[in-house]
Amino acid sequence: MTVSVTLPALGESVTEGTVTRWLKQVGDRVEADEPLLEVSTDKVDTEIPSPAAGVLLEILVAEDETVEVGAGLGVIGAAPVPASAAESAPTPPAPAPAPAPAPAPAPAPVPTPAPAPAPAPAEPFVPPAASAPPASPAPAPAPAPVPVQPAPTAPAAPADEASSLRGRTVAMTRIRRAIGNNLKKALLEQAQLTSTVEADVTRLMRLRSRAKDGFLAREGLKLSPMPFFVKAAAQALKAHPVVNARINEDEGTITYFDTENIGIAVDTEAGLMTPVVKAAGDLTVAGLARAVHDLADRARGGHLTPDDVSGATFTISNTGSRGALFDTVIVPPNQAAILGVGATVRRPGVVRVGDEEVIGVRDLVHLSLSYDHRLVDGADAARYLTAVKALLEAAAFEDDLYPDAAA
């Protein structure tokens, strides 16, 4: 009995995959659910497990070949029955052990030479009598000048090392091609534009500073600002579902989602990955911190599953983590909007103290919302951004940082 290995469905809108590497060869033994081969799609690279235990009898799709979902990849079956072995010839008797050789005679003792006589003691040295009066003592040397220490200078900024890509022409990776094709398709099919607001997150940064040590001790994770931005974005989506939507062009309808599945753009060595925090609107800041850390860690390690990158209804891109002030991010396909979070910088800002307005040092960040104008009007985008800004500036997240408040 044989079992076919087929390409399974690997996520929403994924219709094909490319075999990148077979982990087993024909004739190799494989256990059920043991990784059998690696497949790359336009969203993720993943391993395909063996559907049954047995031997890999046949490989139907070679490496670097692309096939549709459901196509056969290989065949698993029982190992072929080996031919009966010929009867073994009778074992010849073991040869009698050879007699042990006679021990060699001990060597004759070598006489020890007599010790050499000790050298005669040297004659003591007697200096000759002085025939001239002693010379006058030499003048004391002048003190050496004290070296002048140069004034300390600031260390020079380290220069970036030259990239190994300089002067080379390389083939585009599958992930690079997929990213480019998806984003080009999104720009061609959507009416995209971007709105931006500036939020004063001074209170939020102070809350994070107070909570980060206890959070690290309790959770084993550093408390970055990202979970707070995800929390505010998800909470505002509940009040503004027009931004959490998808247009169904074939049916001429719009779907407004009742859950907030937020994709998190992650920069990896292989390229941009966007794993999804499912039901982000139901998680606390602590729960979001754990989810974002887990997904980002697995994205950088190449361990995402198809389910990890499927089902996003909204996306957040934290370009500020690399120092960018703001960005005109591109809305992914099948979504209405994406939020870009810029770098948090300290600048002078106007602060109201009672009835007075004063200048103070504030933590400020740009929030950029790119959206599909077919679904979202400029006023809708502004209302959503204003809601996110208000939540971040209020920074009422204290209860979310306690483990008993986690969903």
Mind explaining what this structure looks like?
- The structure is a single chain.
- With 407 residues, the chain is an alpha+beta fold.
- It has two domains: 2-77, OB fold (Dihydrolipoamide Acetyltransferase, E2P) (Beta Barrel); 182-405, Chloramphenicol acetyltransferase-like domain (Chloramphenicol Acetyltransferase, 2-Layer Sandwich), CATH 3.30.559.
- It is built from five helices and 19 strands.
- The chain has helices at residues 174-189, 202-219, 226-239, 285-301, 378-394, and strands at 2-6, 16-22, 29-30, 35-40, 45-49, 54-59, 66-68, 72-77, 192-200, 245-248, 253-256, 262-264, 266-268, 271-273, 276-277, 314-317, 337-341, 345-353, 356-372.
- The strands form five sheets. Strands 9, 12, 15, 16, 17, 18 and 19 form a seven-stranded mixed β-sheet that branches. It has a four-stranded antiparallel β-sheet with strand order 1-8-6-3, with no helix packed on it. Strands 5-4-2-7 form a four-stranded antiparallel β-sheet, with no helix packed on it.
- Helix 3 (226-239) packs across helix 4 and helix 3 packs across helix 5 (378-394).
- The two termini are 47 Å apart.
- Its EC number is 2.3.1.-.
